[in-house]
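Design job #97: recover the sequence.
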């Protein structure tokens, strides 16, 4: 059985994470990561659609005060 990549879905999630950062006034992913105690490289991977853990996503959503339901609205 071949492993699924889910490229389009990961890209949509990555775009939404980046959108939240920008709406919060951060022009730099590095500044956001450092100011919120996140490893820069790991955060960058999330914004580029790399694989990540659900715990990391939840942590980022809590920083932005966004629920999982609201985050995933409109993502197909």
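Job complete. Output follows.
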């Amino acid at each position: 059985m071949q492993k699924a990549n889910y490229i389009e879905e990961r890209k949509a999630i990555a775009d939404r994470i980046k959108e939240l950062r920008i709406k919060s006034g951060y022009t730099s992913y590095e500044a956001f990561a450092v100011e919120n105690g996140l490893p820069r490289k790991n955060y960058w991977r999330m914004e580029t659609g790399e694989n990540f853990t659900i715990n990391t996503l939840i942590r980022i959503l809590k920083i932005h005060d966004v629920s999982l339901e609201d985050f995933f609205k409109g993502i197909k």
